[in-house]
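To illustrate the input format used throughout this study, we show a single complete record. The first block contains the structure-token representation of the backbone; no residue identities are included at this stage. The design step must infer an amino acid for every position from geometry alone.
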């Protein structure tokens, strides 16, 4: 018979999985308390929720959300990094943090409904962020407009230059 605490945790996990854009399943063993506190702080600053979860509750919550294929990631201690906005932001935090600590290891990823193995982590971590993509898009739109303005203003500039040259020749 499940206890009330597990029932509450299951309801929370089910809700989190249903709203998440990305869930990163990590192995956090080997990190001391201060390192985990630092990691949680970095996740908090990136609007990512990082929590330790029971594998059995994760399996049940995934099944109730019709998510299949994550059972292989749910062995040993598991912590999940959940992003509700930018699905690549947890990868960037994990990558930056693991440069110093070599942890946490990414076991697998639930990325916008697709289950990916931990091997895909590097590829996702190197994706540009949403603001970077938006700035690239703006510059792509801006470039043709800048060229158009230059092309349209060139004949007027040439006409002005010709008139100035004629004026200088007449005044000499």
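Output of the design step:
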């Amino acid at each position: 018979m499940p206890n009330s605490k597990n029932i509450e945790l299951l309801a929370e996990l089910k809700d989190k999985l249903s709203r998440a854009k990305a869930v990163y399943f990590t192995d956090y063993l080997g990190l001391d308390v201060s390192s985990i506190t630092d990691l949680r702080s970095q996740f908090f600053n990136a609007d990512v929720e990082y929590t330790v979860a029971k594998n059995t509750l994760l399996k049940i919550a995934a099944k109730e959300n019709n998510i299949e294929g994550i059972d292989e990631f749910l062995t040993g201690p598991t912590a999940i990094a959940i992003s509700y906005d930018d699905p690549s932001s947890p990868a960037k935090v994990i990558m930056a943090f693991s440069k110093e600590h070599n942890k946490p290891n990414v076991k697998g990823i639930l990325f916008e409904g697709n289950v990916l193995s931990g091997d895909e982590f590097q590829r996702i971590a190197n994706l540009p962020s949403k603001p970077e993509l938006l700035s690239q898009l703006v510059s792509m739109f801006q470039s043709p407009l800048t060229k158009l303005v230059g092309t349209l203003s060139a004949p007027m500039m040439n006409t002005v230059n010709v008139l100035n040259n004629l004026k200088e020749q007449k005044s000499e």
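Structural context for interpreting the output: The chain has a mean pLDDT of 83. The helical segments are 4-19, 33-45, 55-64, 89-101, 121-125, 130-171.
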